[in-house]
Amino acid sequence: MVGRTCYTSFPPGCRVEPLRHTSVVRFGTYEIGLQSGELRKAGVRIRVQQQPLKLLEILLERPGEVVSREELRSRIWPNESFGDFDQAVNVAIAKLRGALGDSADNPRYIETLPRRGYRFIADVAVVNLPSTTPELAPADASSGTEDSAPIEAAGQVARTKRLPWPRAWMTLGLASVVALVILTVWVFLRRSRPPVDILSSSPVRSLAVLPLENLSSDSQDYFADGMTDELITDLAQISALRVISRTSVMPYKDVRKPLPQIARELNVDAVVEGTVLRSGKQVRITAQLIRAPADEHLWAQSYEGNVRDTLVLQKRVARAIAEQIRIKLTPQEQAVLENTKVVNSEAYENYLKGRYFWNKRTADGMKKAIDYFNQAIASDPKYSLPYAGLADIHQLTDQPQLAREEIQKALDLDDQSAEAHNSLASLLYLFNRDWAGAEREFKRALELNHNYAPAHHWYSMYLALDGRKEEALAEAEKAYELDPLSAVVGANLAKILQEAGQDDKAIEQAKKTLDLEPDSAVTHAVLGIVYEDKRMYPEAIAEYRRSLQLGGSPSEMRGLLGYAYAASGDRTDAEKIIAELKALWPGQTRAALDLAVVFSGLGDKENALYWLEKAQDMHVSDLVGIRRDSHFAELRSDRRFQALAQRVGAPK
Predict the structure, then answer these.
(1) What region does 37 belong to: left with phi over 0, alpha with psi -120 to 50, or beta?
(2) In 553-581, which positions are buried (b, 16+ CB within 10 angstroms) versus exposed (e)?
(3) FRET label pair with 465: which of 26, 177, 340, 520, CA 20 to 30 Å apart?
(4) Could you list the residue range(s) of the whole structural domain that residue 120 is in?
(5) Is residue 471 part of a domain?
(6) How large is the average pLDDT for residues 399-407?
């Protein structure tokens, strides 16, 4: 094979011969000073520990070639046992990737080849060379010292030709004068202007914590996901920062997308990436902060300790990020990030497992979540979060009394829980009809965590029922900013727009949400409501049918569908829907309310009022909204309807 000649900027496939006079190698925006052992990005030094730095040097010796794990072991960890080495190399690679802003899923610098080793895939250049360009041996060229040569010698420099003495002195003198002039001008300009903060021109005021990568084992995904959740929760305490919610960041788990693209999709200034490595009772969290639009690395650090110290490590990461983006913390926020409750490690781990299965939103996941939350409580009865987890499940499964009991336990142990206050607010107005108490709890939840998207979401629905349309829209928009990929949040914003009389914007929002999640039953239902509001009945009927097909509420969707049939003059299909709803009753108590909706569409006031009474007898919570429900517009003047609305506590 004919060898290639590679010059100062060389692609993968060229081995680097030792350089006697040069000790700086560049790749991308990074430079490594091999004699000084310094790694810099755009001139800013990045702290890297000795082993990851040595690993980088070895990879840079042979860019484009696979460096086996055995070679790394023999050169960096010759005295480690196999198990210790395996963990050490994983940690070193993770640290190195953290320092370089690299990703295992979408590598720009270091590629992992399973069961083989690692390869440096970026172009590499030698900088600060003498005038003569070195020649580099092709990748297949043989060399007796090549494999063992240290990276400090990154290429062989050819001997330079000597200039005649007079010409040499003249050249040197001219160069010195030019350099002196440039230096003088630079010093003058630098002193004549104030120092510039690298973040002042583009401050970070919003960020997303991307799912932390699990470096432990597949069976411990719950641990990495739990760390992601907790870091989001900690950073969300900072009032000057907008932090994207979990629902919108988890879709990026194991997804290969450029960071600037993710930033645009989530509308944030910066992202936090990182890894979690757990081995026995030890845990290591590596995090890095990246200004997303420019893919600019701002900060990276690793934290390690015992599993029981995990909460402490997380708060240290959150504090470090706040310091890096120059966010001024209030005394309360400072206290939250400083104070960490001591939690039994087994209870904490079971809580993380419970949240992991709760977030799946499946029947099987709920059962497992309940089991893990109960195990956490058994291990540490004074740990409040598992009680809040059980309350969430009971609310979702329509068991308000059980939810209320768990919420009270959580608040008795920790009255600073935004989640618990938000759940209590929902219970107060939906079941107790305590509107003032509910608003007080919503405001308390948002005071504790202004980035808690569910609180903004639920508060917007509360405000809409109370007739406060502008406030409801502001809260719905805030929830959407924090959770832009949630179909439920997007659909709610469309519904609030419709209730505010902005039908065209509501349709636009619903369609945008369906672009992200075409099979969202709730979004199809909301789009149907907007079409119905515009008297576009065929379109409304199509959307209601689609929602029912996708798993929308069997009774609610039939109620809306039956009303649309009735309003469009299709009495036959409306009566078929009535028969289907009666078949659901009384197994599904909400069917009474939906029967009233269909009869109201048919103009049958007596039957509509009859079924509203049945719904009230069964304590259907959604009766709270009947005063503002347009489906009952023809009943509002009837005294019996007014008396019923008063009994169920519907706001005027």
Answers:
(1) left
(2) bbbbbbbbbbbbbbbbebeeebeebbebb
(3) 520
(4) 9-127
(5) no
(6) 90
Q: Are residues 210 and 336 in the same domain?
A: yes
Measured in degrees and rounded to the nearest 5, phi and psi for residue 17 equal -75, 160
- Kindly state the average pLDDT of the residues 266-277: 89
Whether the Cβ atoms of residue 57 and residue 194 lie closer than 8 Å to each other? no
Same domain, 238 and 329: yes
Lowest mean pLDDT among 4-13, 85-94, 514-523: 4-13
Query: Tokens at residue 285, please?
Result: 């969290």
If you average pLDDT over every residue of the chain, what do you get?
Answer: 80
| pLDDT attached to residue 80 | 59
**108, 127, 146: which is the final residue of a domain?**
127
| Long-range contacts formed by 565-569: CB under 8 A, 24+ apart | 565/541, 565/601, 566/598, 566/601, 566/602, 566/603, 567/532, 567/535, 567/537, 567/601, 568/537, 568/538, 568/541
Exposed/middle/buried for residue 185 (C-beta within 10 Å: 0-12, 13-18, 19+): exposed
User: In this structure, is residue 65 part of a structural domain?
Assistant: yes
pTM over 0.90: no
- Does 66 reside within a domain? yes
Residue 217 buriedness (CB in 10 A; 0-12 / 13-18 / 19+): exposed
> For tokens 């370089």, what's the residue?
100
Q: How far is the first Cα of the chain from the last one, in angstroms, to the nearest whole number?
A: 87
pLDDT tens digits, one per residue of 169-204: 344 455 444 444 444 444 444 444 444 344 444 688
Q: How far apart are alpha carbons 317 and 285 in whole angstroms?
A: 8
Dihedral angle at the C-alpha atoms of 632, 636, 638, 643, nearest 10 degrees?
A: 100
Q: What is the CATH number of the domain that holds 237?
A: 3.40.50.10610
DSSP codes, 310-353:
HHHHHHHHHHHHHHHTTPPPPHHHHHHHH------HHHHHHHHH
Q: Identify the burial level of 240 via C-beta atoms within 10 angstroms of its C-beta, where 0-12 means exposed, 13-18 middle and 19 or more buried.
A: middle
CATH of the domain at 116: 1.10.10.10
Domain end position, chosen among 302, 323, 340: 340
User: How far apart are alpha carbons 551 and 522 in whole angstroms?
Assistant: 9
pLDDT at 514: 95
Domain membership flag for residue 446:
no
- Cα(462)–Cα(290) distance, rounded to whole angstroms? 37
- pLDDT band at 362, cuts 50/70/90? low
- Distance (Å, rounded) from C-alpha 26 to C-alpha 19? 14
Which pLDDT does position 188 carry in this prediction? 45
Q: Helix, strand, coil % (nearest 5) of the chain? A: 55, 10, 35
Selection from 355, 177, 201 nearest residue 291 by Cα: 201
More confident residue, 560 or 516: 560
Number of domains in the chain: 3
The span from the CA of 251 to the CA of 180, in Å, is: 55
